[in-house]
């Protein structure tokens, strides 16, 4: 539990949020352009990233790892978004996939 009994500067809130996310082991993207939002949906094997540009200006997003653009099929870590544009990216949990293959005798 965290309690903040003061009104601080923007940096205080960013540091507090980063600490909470790290303490709770929640993945986050720290260097997103203004107005960009990323949400995820996942199961045991697949993970989908929905990248939204909620601003009226074009922007570029650089991610740590290559991901497959769900629509174009391209593998990339750099995304160009037009105003109010969005992309769906896909990755796989390879450790889980290898485990499933091993258990099913496919490997």
């Amino acid at each position: 539990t965290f309690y903040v009994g003061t009104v601080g500067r923007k940096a205080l809130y960013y540091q507090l949020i980063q600490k909470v996310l790290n303490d709770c082991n929640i993945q986050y993207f720290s260097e997103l352009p203004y107005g960009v939002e990323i949400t995820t949906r996942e199961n045991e094997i697949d993970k989908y990233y929905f990248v939204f540009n909620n601003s009226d200006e074009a922007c570029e997003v650089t991610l740590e790892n290559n991901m497959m653009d769900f629509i174009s099929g391209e593998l990339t870590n750099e995304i160009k978004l037009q105003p109010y544009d969005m992309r769906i990216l896909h990755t796989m949990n390879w450790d889980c996939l290898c485990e499933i293959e091993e258990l099913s005798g496919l490997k």
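The chain has a mean pLDDT of 85. The beta strands are 36-42, 46-53, 59-69, 75-81, 86-92.
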